[in-house]
Amino acid sequence: MSVPDTSPWWRSAVIYQVYIRSFADGDGDGVGDIAGIRSRLPYLKSLGVDAIWINPWYKSPMADHGYDVADFRAIDGLFGTVAGAEQLIAEAHQQGIRVIPDLVPNHTSDQHVWFQAALAAGPGSPERERYVFRAGRGEGGALPPNNWVSEFGGPAWTRLPDGDWYLHLFAPQQPDLNWEHPDVHAEFEDILRFWFGRGVDGFRIDVAHGLVKHPELPDAPARLDAADQQPRQHIDHPHWDRDEVHDIYRAWRKVADEFEGDRCFVAEAWADTPERLAAYVREGALHTAFNFDYLMASWDPEELRTAIDDSLTMLGAVGAPATWVLSNHDVVRHPSRYGRSAAKRWVAGERYAPVGPLDLDLGTRRARAAALLTLALPGGAYIYQGEELGLPEVEDLPEDVLQDPIWERSGHTDAGRDSCRVPIPWAGQHPPYGFSPDHATATPWLPQPVGWSGFTVEAQTGDPASVLELYRTALRLRRAHPALGDGTLTWLDTPPGVLAFRRDPGFVCVVNLSAAPYPLPDGSSVLLGSASVEDGLLAPDHTVWLDV
User: Fold this and answer.
1) Whose CA, among 54, 268, 337, 411, lies 20 to 30 Å from 203?
2) Helical H runs in 64-181?
3) What's the 3-state SS for 175-229?
């Protein structure tokens, strides 16, 4: 009989990312919402996930689809109401599913009451001290205060008619907060208590490596290519991953600890090195952090093993669990990354650009294999909505439907992230594939491909060869097997191109990234494979779980 696991839930959790606009439309307006999530809770229960992370649902003008928040204590009418959110939280808990909303502390919307007050008050006013306002450089202050660049393209500064410039590391509609101001600290601690008091189980922290800026706002160093940083090293940056940011999170941890029920934080933190990432999750700080090194690795045994080893070593040194993620709402879906033989490594600070023709069959095989690898690793895992359906990137969206601010800010040279955010298919032969109800009055906010009927939940349910049933089986086994979840692994000796590790008691995962079939160990039995195993041989681009 297995010993009950008494460790905190978040150390082993499988968390499902709900990009709310594209998950399920409950009211028929073509945009996903809280009612849609509530209607699909039985599906999430049957899938076997432990929690859902919901992208921003707060009141917003939607300049960046909710990441420009005008009121952190209100739900945007597009998505529902606070009362509806409370119902969702309660119903999810009844299903055994925890709820983790997004939190955006680096910036607000330009429609936030604070920023509107700052605009009205004028240069030098106390109201402007809550944001980062500065005089310009050059004659008449006509040049930006420094060389900082927006993540969405163009300068990170916008000048007002009164002459002041304000900082926005993202869109101009997303002014950066000044985290040296005590009002900002107090406000966000109160926001945490507001939502913890309504039952949320934690928060995903957007741009967790941001917030704090160098007080003198010096010019930023030139961005180095990955090839210029071997070995990787930390670069002192004036607005990313500054040491002072950890004081904020230690204070937030104390707020979370005021509430019962193992509340948790997960950081979206981009760090130069695994050691820098580990600082976010050391004792008394945040609980977990996204593992972007693993996401960015190519379908390559050396890159994958390095990412796994570095993550486990550095996070283990501070007593934190690793988390593993293959896709999210900001990156190209992994079947489309893995389906290109010429695909380059995905590099932090750059948008992934598809290289070479797409072989979706290849990408799907590798995505299935990667799913089993991911779910076998020690720690927790994230599933981006639709990956359990095997959805590829929608690479042919018409230009006239693109809504990501990256598209406009790049001068129409970068299509942005909409192609991984297309509403997911639930049932039927034609769009909207059950995304919206039958009485819908609008089409989905992004068009779905005509050929997606085979990807629907309805089409895949009960088909043992489907990606959906692979995920359901893997999650069921992961929950039941005493070796899986939090813990450690031991690498096994294998030939080049093959990764294999043991987890005790009695579990082995083998991934064949080589071009030749790999003979499985004698005496082992197959628990689950990304494809069937014939004659004891694991085919290329497949993964198997073994009982040993």
Assistant:
1) 337
2) 82-94, 113-121
3) CEECCCCHHHHHHHHHHHHHHHCCCCCEEEECCCCCCCCCCCCCCCCCCCCHHHC
Cite the beta strand spans of 282-379 per DSSP E: 288-289, 323-325
H or E element that contains 100: strand 98-103
**Is residue 144 scored above 70 in pLDDT?**
yes
pLDDT confidence of residue 339: 94
What does the chain come to in residues? Answer: 548
* Strand 525-529 with 498-503, pairing: unpaired
Which amino acid would we find at residue 376? A
Our answer to whether residue 258 is catalytic in this structure is yes
Query: From CA 471, how far away is CA 384, in angstroms rounded?
Result: 12
Centroid of chain to Cα 37? 18
Q: Tokens standing for 131?
A: 């944001």
Crossing angle for the helix pair 182-196 and 245-256, to the nearest 10 degrees: 30
Partners of 467 in the beta sheet? none
pLDDT for 298 equals 92
Would the CA dihedral through 340, 344, 347, 351 be positive or negative? negative
Closest CA to 15 of 91, 90, 97: 97
* For residues 334-356, average pLDDT: 69
Against a cut of 0.85, is the pTM above it? Answer: yes
Would residue 288 be called left, alpha or beta, if left means φ above 0 and alpha means ψ between -120 and 50 degrees? beta
- pLDDT range class, residue 3, cuts 50, 70, 90: very low
Res 168 pLDDT > 80: yes
pLDDT exceeds 70 at position 162: yes
Which pLDDT score, from 0 to 100, does residue 147 have? 97
**CB within 8 Å of 370: residues ≥ 6 apart:** 299, 326, 334, 338, 543
What are the C-alpha distances in Å from 312 to residues 266, 285, 309, 489?
17, 18, 5, 9
Tell me whether residue 206 is one of the annotated catalytic residues.
yes
Tell me which of 475 and 225 has the higher pLDDT: 475
| Active-site residue, selected from the candidate residues 219, 258, 350, 463 | 258
Tokens of 486: 């939090």
Based on C-alpha coordinates, what's the Rg of the chain?
23
Q: How far apart are CA 487 and CA 204, in angstroms?
A: 23
The token pair at 528 is 């689950």
Specify whether the CB–CB gap between 356 and 341 falls below 8 A: yes
Long-range contacts (CB closer than 8 Å, 24 or more residues apart) made by 256-260: 256/192, 256/196, 256/202, 258/193, 258/196, 259/196, 259/197
Q: What is the pLDDT of residues 295-334, one digit of tens each?
A: 999 999 999 999 999 999 999 999 999 999 999 999 999 9
Match 């706002």 to its residue by tokens: 217
Tens of pLDDT, residue by residue over 198-255, are: 999 999 999 999 999 999 999 999 865 444 444 567 789 999 999 999 999 999 999 9
**One-letter identity of residue 453:** S
Mean pLDDT of the chain: 94
Task: Give dist(CA 259, CA 203) in Å, integer.
Answer: 13
Helices (H) and strands (E) in the chain, counts: 14, 20
Q: Is the pLDDT of residue 353 over 90?
A: no
